[in-house]
Design goal:
It is a single chain. By secondary structure, the protein is an alpha/beta fold. It has 14 helices and 13 strands. About 40% of the residues lie in helices and about 15% in strands. A 7-stranded parallel β-sheet has the order 3-2-1-4-5-6-7, sandwiched between helices. A 6-stranded parallel β-sheet has the order 10-9-8-11-12-13, with helices on both faces.
Length: about 400
């Protein structure tokens, strides 16, 4: 059976890594012909397109499929997607992200394709943006939702949010978490040589983040509490993994606060390096205001590192208060300061929460389980429409 996935960008990011893992995993299984359509992926975030090189998955780059609203390019992208679907006639179209999710589903419906699946990696509407944008995106999701056969959500929080917005019916939703190659995280160690490579000493308490350096990711809050943390625990160092358009802003912020020497910016790193970097962290914080279920959290827990996260979207499904880490209301800077200091001062607590976190995620977040669950869903949807599947 032919399956076509569509995503807006193939930058280095959780939704994109999920999509690449999905198409590669399914494309290597007998009976499935998988291809991927993406818009251009150029920028500081890096590209995952090379990961598909030499694989059985065909990649088509659609230049007009861009993230910002652009009526002329959007119309061309819709027309081109329609032409591609009409020519290849996939049995399943599976879309990801906001723009590709909207245009891809409309194009698939226009051609009359039998099965249209959409994955909700994160919310396209919510308190992180203004009322006009929320209204527009809700209308778009409702319109596309009317032609969607089934929704896949990476967290139960996304299902509740979309149902509350009047998008689809409960039986149209399945929770399939964003799996990853969990082995390297399970074997991650606090390697002194890797620490030294980044200018970190064995005795340092390393507070790490894994996120694009951009708005809504919460780095501003970490900088706000850094001076207070360092006054009470001078051994703390901050390891910021990732790159983005706001890197210079954050470097200037660290300089203006007089804490530049305590911050390490890794810049863009290959996703395969993430487990090793988590290994040299003592605490992982994730302060994003907009996520589905941030991949950094189960990755950290698989490496037996405690997490501190804001209670946004699906974070509470893996960050369990005082079981795998600490969950805070967004913007609770006193609470954030207290929890980080608590963990910094107590190696036993860090070990206890980390081990409990590993036990929570080590089976559910395996990439093989994600592929199994998606394959089972595809077969079920095909069977319900009398379509033969592999």
């Amino acid at each position: 059976m032919r399956v076509t996935h569509v995503i807006t960008r193939l930058i280095v990011g959780g939704a994109q890594e999920n999509t690449v893992a999905t198409v590669l995993g399914l494309g290597r299984r007998p009976g499935w012909e998988v291809n991927l359509i993406s818009g251009p992926s150029i920028g500081l975030e890096g590209s995952l397109a090379p990961a598909l090189s030499g694989s059985p998955v065909a990649l088509t780059i659609l230049p007009q499929l861009v993230r910002p609203i652009h009526p002329w390019k959007d119309w061309i992208a819709l027309r081109r997607l329609t032409e591609l679907f009409r020519g290849s006639k996939p049995g399943i179209v599976h879309t990801h992200s906001g723009k590709a999710g909207f245009l891809g589903r409309l194009a698939a419906a226009k051609v009359g394709l039998p099965i249209i699946v959409h994955t909700i990696h994160g919310p396209s509407f919510g308190p992180f943006q203004g009322p006009l944008a929320n209204t527009l995106f809700k209308l778009a999701e409702r319109r596309a939702g009317r032609v969607t056969t089934h929704f896949v959500a990476v967290a139960d929080a996304m299902i509740r949010q979309y149902l509350d917005a009047g998008i689809g019916r409960r039986e149209q939703y399945s929770r399939i978490v964003s799996g990853f190659d969990i082995g390297p995280c399970l074997s991650a160690v606090n390697d002194p040589q890797r620490r030294a490579r980044w200018g970190l000493a064995p005795e340092d308490i390393v507070v790490g983040t894994i996120a694009r350096l951009y708005k809504l990711k919460g780095h501003e809050d970490l900088f706000s509490i850094a001076p207070a943390l360092l006054r009470q625990c001078p051994r703390i160092r901050f390891l910021l993994v990732g790159d983005g358009a706001w890197r210079a802003r954050f470097e200037n912020k660290a300089r203006s606060l007089g804490v530049k020497q305590y911050f390490v910016f890794t810049g863009l790193v290959d996703p395969r390096e993430i487990p090793g970097l988590i290994g040299i962290m003592d605490i992982v914080v994730h302060l994003s205001r907009r996520e589905g279920l941030p991949r950094a959290l189960p990755q950290a827990l698989a490496a037996a590192r405690p997490v501190v996260a804001y209670d946004c979207d699906g974070a509470r499904e893996v960050c369990l208060e005082n079981e795998t880490g600490f969950l805070l209301c967004p913007g609770d800077l006193p609470g954030l300061t207290d929890r980080v200091l608590c963990l910094a001062a107590d190696a036993g607590l860090r070990e206890k929460l980390g081990k409990q976190g590993r036990n929570l995620v080590k089976d559910e977040f395996r990439v093989e389980r994600m592929i199994d669950d998606l394959e089972h869903l595809y077969r079920r949807l095909a069977g319900s429409r009398g379509i033969q599947s592999p």
